[in-house]
From TrEMBL, chain A:
It comes from Paenibacillus cisolokensis. The keyword Nuclease does not apply. Keywords: Membrane, Transmembrane, Transmembrane helix. The lineage of its organism: Bacteria, Bacillati, Bacillota, Bacilli, Bacillales. The chain crosses the membrane at residues 18-39, 59-82, 103-130, 136-160, 172-190, 210-232. This is Permease. It comes from the Bacteria. The keyword RNA-binding does not apply.
UniProtKB/TrEMBL annotation, chain B:
GO terms for molecular function: ATP binding. InterPro entries: AAA+_ATPase, ABC_transporter-like_ATP-bd, ABC_transporter-like_CS, P-loop_NTPase. It comes from Paenibacillus cisolokensis. It comes from the Bacteria. This is ABC transporter ATP-binding protein. Keywords: ATP-binding, Nucleotide-binding, Transport. Gene3D superfamilies: P-loop containing nucleotide triphosphate hydrolases (3.40.50.300). PROSITE patterns: ABC_TRANSPORTER_1 (PS00211), ABC_TRANSPORTER_2 (PS50893). It holds the Pfam family ABC_tran. Belongs to the ABC transporter superfamily. Residues 6-233 form the ABC transporter domain.
């Protein structure tokens, strides 16, 4: 049933700038790093002498986290607005589909769109490195870690934004929360490890990115489940 | 096992201490066109939302096709087409794409889209974005969406609200043909009796959350039959004279009112009065329209 709901969702997001956002996000991050490395090439190459690729991937990663947090809030809001705009929830939810399927499909679409963005980010980073003359032997493991694990660590924010966007008809609230979180994340590296906004940076005292990603996955699932229960029980206006 | 298509058992919805729907027992049989009437704010939409599982009843139960709605929601809703208040649509998509989005959810055959577009005569406008549609076209698209899944039961909440007279007529004819040609059971709500009068076989009147009348439209018409008004010179005596021969009349400002009677009975009354030497000035039939009767039932429709 989720497949049927998702098929309908793909149709509905046509002509909406969701895919545009999915491309512009990673393109913007890679573009800014291209400018960064282009303008300060000699300085940065000297600084990252020992590990040119590592330096580039690290820089892209730091810029990608706020872009990811902001982007997921925007996409979540757009997905929910499809129904809010003409109050189509009453139509969708009076059809023979479960609320579980409707909520899960929205969440799944958000995951797919962001996964595409992360893939574009990985490809873009590799292309940028090659273009800067760092060679073609890029560290695949490091690149994939920096591209996809922040996405996994950001799961709680995806679940939270979908939950808020779907249940609140006024999108100013979820968008404000999303933007505030994005700004907060810029200062979160100094916070302690339990702080969720720090997780997408994959920094923790164990020096293991999987710890941050695992925490994100667990918290994301809990928030998704809580949102689902609330959505399934609530009255539809 | 009941034969009702819709059956509610003491359906109640309380929101913030306010009872919107109060112990409603609504029953609709197969093939009926049920007019669900009530002034604005009487609880019609709240009831309909409960029938569709959009909101949870505070108390009471909804059974559709003899099955408990809460337990068999998706199976039951497969046989229901619904249109609640204003039409829902995706404005950036064309009419065709709107239908396709719902078709994917229902898993109906693709050919069904052209069929329903034909039924509501929207084939020509199907390629345009819905945000450019007139309200009448949007409403027709809404009805096309309702019909996509070949429902056996239609639940239409104020389907003619905001339409111009031509649009109202069109939707009304569409509803009638659905019942006549496809044997669908239809619940249609309205705050205007005149609208339901022309298509319903049975009516339910809700007022302040309570069902105050539920019977065939004929029964409602019978209840609103006219009265005979007699203007005479000595009201008191005339009243006594009539009572003396077993006719109950109501005396009011120089007139006597009796329930509508056969021609012979009216003639007998006149003869009686003349025999008592009472001058009869006027005999009038006072027709109370269905509308007036409806207004009387709902306290003059204070919120109309």
């Amino acid at each position: 049933m989720i497949a049927r709901v998702m098929a309908a969702e793909w149709l509905k997001i046509r002509k909406k700038p969701i895919w545009f956002l999915a491309v512009i996000g990673p393109a913007g991050v890679v573009g800014l790093q291209a400018a960064n490395f282009g303008l300060r090439y000699d300085y940065l190459v000297k600084q990252y002498e020992d590990d040119l690729w590592g330096g580039l991937i690290g820089n892209v990663h730091y810029l990608a986290v706020p872009a990811l947090l902001l982007g997921l809030a925007l996409v979540a809001s757009m997905l929910a607005s499809l129904e809010h705009q003409t109050n189509a929830w009453k139509q969708t939810l009076a059809l023979p589909v479960t609320r579980f399927a409707v909520f899960t499909a929205k969440f799944a679409i958000l995951l797919v769109v962001l996964a595409v963005s992360c893939t574009l980010l990985a490809v873009g980073t590799a292309a940028l490195g090659a273009g800067l003359g760092f060679g073609y032997a890029f560290p695949a493991g490091e690149l994939l870690t920096a591209s996809y694990l922040p996405f996994v660590a950001a799961m709680p924010f995806m679940a939270l934004q979908i939950w808020m966007s779907v249940t609140l008809s006024n999108q100013a609230v979820p968008l404000t929360v999303g933007i505030a979180g994005t700004i907060l994340s810029l200062y979160s590296v100094r916070m302690s490890d339990w702080f969720p906004w720090k997780w997408p940076y994959l920094i923790n005292e164990w020096n293991d990115p999987l710890v941050s990603a695992g925490a994100g996955l667990a918290a994301g699932f809990l928030l998704y489940a809580a949102g689902l229960v609330h959505f399934a029980r609530r009255d539809v206006k | 096992m009941s034969a009702w298509i819709i059956e509610t058992d003491r359906l109640t919805k309380t929101v913030g201490g306010k009872t919107l729907v109060d112990g409603l027992n609504l029953t609709i049989g197969k093939g009926e066109v049920y007019g669900f009437l009530g002034p604005n704010g009487a609880g019609k939409t709240t009831t309909i939302r409960m029938l569709l599982g959009l909101i949870r009843p505070t108390r009471g139960k909804v059974r559709l096709f003899g099955q408990d709605l809460q337990r068999n929601r998706t199976a039951v809703l497969r046989k229901v087409g619904s249109l609640v208040e204003y039409p829902s649509y995706y404005g950036h998509l064309t009419g065709y794409e709107n239908l396709e989005a719902v078709r994917r959810l229902l898993d109906a055959p693709k050919s069904r889209i052209d069929e329903v577009l034909g039924v509501v005569r929207l084939t020509k406008g199907a390629g345009r974005p819905v945000k450019a549609y007139s309200l009448g076209m949007k409403q027709r698209l809404g009805i096309a969406t309702v019909l996509l899944g070949k429902p056996e039961l239609l639940i239409l909440d104020e389907p003619t609200n905001g339409l111009d007279p031509a649009g109202i007529l069109e939707i009304r004819e569409l509803i009638k043909s659905m019942a006549r040609d496809h044997g669908m059971t239809i619940l249609v709500s309205s705050h205007l009796l005149s609208e339901v009068d022309q298509m319903a076989t049975r009516v339910g009147i809700i007022h302040k959350g309570k069902m105050i009348f539920q019977d065939s439209i004929q029964a409602l018409r019978d209840r609103s039959r006219g009265r005979i008004s007699l203007t005479v010179d000595r009201t008191e005596e005339a009243w006594k004279a009539l009572l003396g021969s077993g006719i109950r009349a109501e005396a009011a400002d120089g007139r006597l009112l009796v329930e509508s009677l056969s021609d012979e009975k009216v003639a007998a009354i006149v003869r009686l009065l003349v025999r008592h030497d009472i001058a009869v000035y006027r005999i009038q039939e006072e027709k109370r329209s269905l509308e007036e009767h409806f207004l009387a039932l709902t306290d003059g429709g204070d919120s109309l």
